[in-house]
Amino acid sequence: MKNEFLENWHSQLRKGLLPLYVLHILDQKQCYGYELIQDIKAVFSVDVAEGTLYPLLIRLMKEELLTHQWVEQPSGIPRKYYAISAVGKSNLAEMKAYTNLIITKING
Amino acid sequence: MKNEFLENWHSQLRKGLLPLYVLHILDQKQCYGYELIQDIKAVFSVDVAEGTLYPLLIRLMKEELLTHQWVEQPSGIPRKYYAISAVGKSNLAEMKAYTNLIITKING
DNA sequence: AAAAATACATTGTTATACTATGTATTGTGT
DNA sequence: ACACAATACATAGTATAACAATGTATTTTT
To answer: Could you tell me which CATH number the domain at A4-107 has?
Structure first.
């Protein structure tokens, strides 16, 4: 670890940004958990542990920001596909507006 | 509380953004703790509890991102003035670059 | 046949915001 | 004069969520 402070900071920042990443991606297409981990890495260059993402998805379900359905596969383990709900969409909009506002203030 | 999820999200996001706020403000002028609370509210419209800020300042001191000096006042309690260090400045630059990168990806 | 990748999930640890509380001084309203 | 708010520091306990470690099971690659 080169810079302990920065690494810790990234981890703390993730606590706020991860729900935003998940909602952002699910706003564009339905995904299953394992797929989300790869998409988040591809889009945001962020490595998310499974032990982080799965509890987060469960949490977002409880808050009713997401819905899900099991989809059987021709072969292999069934996939749990998640979709963003209407509540999720409105929250996502507020979250994006807020983060943009903050960043404007930091740059301005 | 209207939207419990959003309130919690703001709180989590703060964990990542608060060090950025503090370094950003101290990059422009030296401040004492109580003053920082007011400045953060004024600039970022964020209410920071004293029980949040003081431990954070102590942490940033330990990480050597800040320096401080006590300044006696003509009247009243002495103030502990904080200033950003060279390490603090370089970390701040990285933090700003990173947050901007993320926002670009969310908006793009 | 072994290892890696896919796909789900839980448990324990750690970091940090937040509430509550504490100390002490100064200013304001009545 | 006296209560209350504001100023200015600080710590203790609680709640939240990332992360590492671990577990189960199937499929693909070497």
So the answer is: 1.10.10.10
Contact at 8 Å (CB) between B8 and B64?
A: no
Per domain, the residue ranges of chain B are 4-107
pLDDT digits (tens, 9 = 90+) for B70-79: 999 988 889 9
- B20 to chain A nearest CA, in Å? 9
Count the neighbouring beta carbons within 10 Å of the beta carbon of residue B96: 17
- How far is the alpha carbon of A10 from chain B, nearest alpha carbon, in Å? 7
pLDDT at B12 over 50: yes
DSSP three-state, residue B1:
coil
What is the side-by-side order of every strand in the sheet holding A66-71?
A31-32, A79-84, A66-71
